Amino acid sequence: MNNAYDIAYRRSLDDPSGFWGEAAADIKWIKTWDKVLDESKAPFYRWFSGAVVNTCYNAVDRHVEEGRGAQAAIIYDSPVAGVVRHISYAELQDLTARFAGVLAGLGVAKGDRVIIYMPMVPEAAVAMLACARLGAIHSVVFGGFAANELATRINDAAPKVIVSASCGLEGQKVIAYKPLLDQAIELASHKPAHTVILARPQVVATMVAGRDLDWAEAVAGAKPHACVPVAATDPLYILYTSGTTGQPKGVVRDNGGHMVALKWSMKYVYNVAPGEVYWAASDVGWVVGHSYIVYAPLLHGCTTVLYEGKPVGTPDAGAFWRVIAQHKVQTLFTAPTAFRAIKRDDPEALLLKQYDLSHFRTLFLAGERSDPDTLQWAERYLKVPVIDHWWQTETGWAICANCMGLQQFPVKHGSPTKAVPGWNVQVLDEGHHNCPPGQVGALVVKLPLPPGTLPTLWNADQRFIDSYLYEYPGYYKTADAGFIDEDGYVYVMSRTDDIINVAGHRLSTGAMEEVLASHPDVAECAVIGVHDTMKGQLPLGFLVLKAGVTKPAEQILKEVVTLVRERIGPVAAFKTATIVQRLPKTRSGKILRGTMQKIADHEDYKMPATIDDPGILDEIEDSLTAIGYARAR
Ligand code: COA
Ligand code: AMP
């Protein structure tokens, strides 16, 4: 075949330097590279080494210079606050330069870290861009995490400054952020010198004199700061994501490769032109928010929508249609769970009839497996292509997609279509041999990964190797299992580790087990992800109590639910646990979580050959039946 996709895909693998070197012409460099792909420290590959650049310049200033000053860069839409605000590129340049001045005034310079713990307000994007302007490294922490998780990230990133807000608006709830921030700083061993707090009208924050600055006052007295030249290989940000333990992984993103890949993706994956309105309905705290609320649309000269609302309840299941119609959105990117929520509340999409969506072109879904039912529902009512695409926090952009700007392939429901140019995706069996078409194995990507992906983990080169490169030498382990069919369509089936996906949010069951195990009455525990029709998966805990515990079971169950909420955060959605006498294990003592999950989800399972005592599975089934999971025997 000789279609545009095949040509681009082959070239990207045969001549990666040529392919990405050409794509890099879309970025404005202060100095161009010595090498497009630098393999000198493999497996720590680097893209565009020797080049000098600034990400904020390419995302903001260059558009003002090129005549987009009056175009909206950001449309902030907050249905609960009742605010719609258009921020032009010229205004964004001013806001960003002045906030960079604030940070510089607090001693933040190139290479320093700044934590951003903010709700979905434009100031979150301004703070990110201001860091990029200075060459400082931002680390955005999602608002739904508890103080303890924030403290872990403060210790690891050791920020000079933390930027936050008095509160977030989470659906109809007002969440005070400042007490959580104060608690996190209290818990952390590293103390930031300053915080900058955005005062929102809904909540007044209590400020610590000398440490906490008011955003508006600080900006009023600040001088605009120019863009600081940085190496293309310098880190732009750290984004912590769930690992297999309570210690999250700090995914690092560089400046140069990141810009090249994201800008390329806007044209070839999303088929979006500069000047168009692009909306990623996610949160700036997640990778989708970094890549497709902030950086990619701005690098491409688009208008990005920053929506501080939910798909349902703000005020109803027509919220997405209202935003698309009101702001003339051409492309929407969200997680399938958002569409499941809309479908649940308005199964026949009656609210859609109130809006004119004639300019709407494509819906992209990612973050979890797109169930064919939801995807077909969206196709039926929206009457536009609905494109599933697969990616991870680590990769920063899509590994597999139907590249709408190259060649639109027929959709096969359940598949995110084909490997995107740059991604040599393969399926390996346990013996590290390529699986034949249709056979499930480990989804891996042959090294080097394309630009825009993680060059390493923050302060943890060895963990980077151990987590991703060690098991399959020469490949990046995605930790997803799946297969490729005869036509080259990739199917992503499940994680091979203890990560679960709850409402499009990535969570570690291992981290939840650490919290449960810390309860004084718990001897042993396990957490699994069980199927949920709305959120995709939900965590479910099993507790074995210590001998002699007399406290009522209900109380212990309540306490562990509270403990997970306090330590990890409400986003963990840990609401159900059950007490069992024993956990099923292999003879070597490994807990059979996979088998427990199959029982809970009513799936057929094979009795594991290595099980220590098969009778325990009946006990597990009975306790699951008692709480509404599994089927009665
Ligand atoms: N700050 C504080 N709390 C937050 C939060 C934030 N930014 N985000 C979520 N939470 C809280 C919620 O209020 C909820 O708390 P509760 O237990 O008191 O009700 C809890 O965390 C779980 O949140 P969530 O999983 O989002 O469930 P929900 O029932 O509030 O909403 C959806 C369900 C499907 C509507 C919602 O998850 C959604 O819109 N998802 C879109 C997908 C998405 O953004 N994915 C990101 C990757 S693309
Ligand atoms: P995150 O790092 O939060 O983006 O989560 C990444 C994980 O989400 C992947 O490893 C997959 O398990 C899952 N995921 C993301 N997109 C898809 C998709 N389109 N299809 C199936 N699983 C997906």
Molecular structure report:
The chain has about 625 residues and is α/β, with parallel strands linked by helices. It folds into two domains: about 5-310 and about 390-480, Rossmann fold (3-Layer(aba) Sandwich); about 505-625, ANL, C-terminal domain (GMP Synthetase, Chain A, domain 3). The protein is about 30% helix and about 25% strand. The chain contains 18 helices and 31 strands. Strand 29 (about 520-530) and strand 30 (about 535-545) form a beta hairpin. Bound molecules: coenzyme A and adenosine monophosphate (AMP). Adenosine monophosphate binds near residues 366, 391 and 393.
From the structure above, extract its key features.
alpha/beta, globular, binds adenosine monophosphate, GMP Synthetase, Chain A, domain 3, 2 domains, 5-stranded parallel β-sheet
In short:
The protein is of the alpha/beta class and 633 residues long. The chain has two domains: 4-309 and 389-482, Rossmann fold (3-Layer(aba) Sandwich), CATH 3.40.50; 505-626, ANL, C-terminal domain (GMP Synthetase, Chain A, domain 3, 2-Layer Sandwich), CATH 3.30.300.30. 31% of the residues lie in helices and 24% in strands.
